[in-house]
């Protein structure tokens, strides 16, 4: 398996094979409500993260951040893909 960032800057994710959305989101994530940014980890679950949008993100950018298995579980539960 290559580095999880092998898919960065390309049209699709090397892990799931899905194209990025028009907004630039990972294809397997789609849109997550209330999320500033997220990454599926591209096959390496420990690299996955979800950073939630909140009013004070400029001063406390990582205050609402989940990583790894917790992020994967959140993505699977809340992803707009396949719904």
How much of the sequence is in beta strands? 5-15%
Structural class based on helices, strands and sheet pairing: alpha+beta
Largest sheet: 3 strands, antiparallel
Average predicted local confidence, pLDDT: 78
Helix content: 10-25%
Q: Rg to the nearest angstrom?
A: 12 Å
Tally of helical runs:
1
Question: SSE order in H/E notation?
Answer: EEEH
Overview of the molecule:
With 83 residues, the chain is of the alpha+beta class. The protein has one domain. It has one helix and three strands, in the order E-E-E-H. Strands 1-2-3 form a three-stranded antiparallel β-sheet. The protein is globular. Mean pLDDT is 78; it is low at 1-7.
In short:
With 83 residues, the protein is an alpha+beta fold. It has one helix spanning 68-78, and strands at residues 35-39, 49-52, 65-67.
How do the helices and strands line up, and which of them pair or pack?
Layout: E1 35-39, E2 49-52, E3 65-67, H1 68-78
Antiparallel strand pairs: 1-2, 2-3
């Amino acid at each position: 398996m290559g580095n999880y960032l092998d898919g960065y800057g390309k049209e699709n994710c090397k892990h799931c094979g899905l194209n990025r959305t028009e907004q630039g989101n990972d294809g397997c994530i789609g849109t997550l409500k209330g999320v500033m940014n997220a990454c599926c980890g591209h096959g390496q679950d420990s690299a996955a993260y979800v950073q939630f949008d909140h009013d004070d993100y400029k001063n406390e950018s990582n205050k609402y951040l989940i990583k790894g298995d917790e992020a994967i579980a959140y993505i699977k539960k809340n992803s707009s893909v396949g719904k």
